[in-house]
Amino acid sequence: MKIDNDKPNALSGPTDSLNQTGALKPSVAAAPKGTTPANRTDQVTLSSEAQLLKAAADAASGDSGVRADVVEKMRALLADGKIGDDATRLAEALLDDVLKNQ
Length: 102
Prior knowledge:
Layout: H1 48-62, H2 68-79, H3 87-100
């Protein structure tokens, strides 16, 4: 079966080049009455979903998920030959863990 995707897609289609034609100047005419360009501020309001996504991303970036103490312990056991010499036992332990945590 062949799927033809002949519909234009704004994300994957060609893009126009952007050329800056000159220095940008703030527009005084666009400012509401009683304000000057110096005291205007832009505001962004995030949806609750976006706030939750940001909180999750911040939490994930702060924790590498690697427990250095356990890694060092396992490296020492591997170097001593106490683990890593029985592939069958390892496979069974992995399968048991997966089945236990379903």
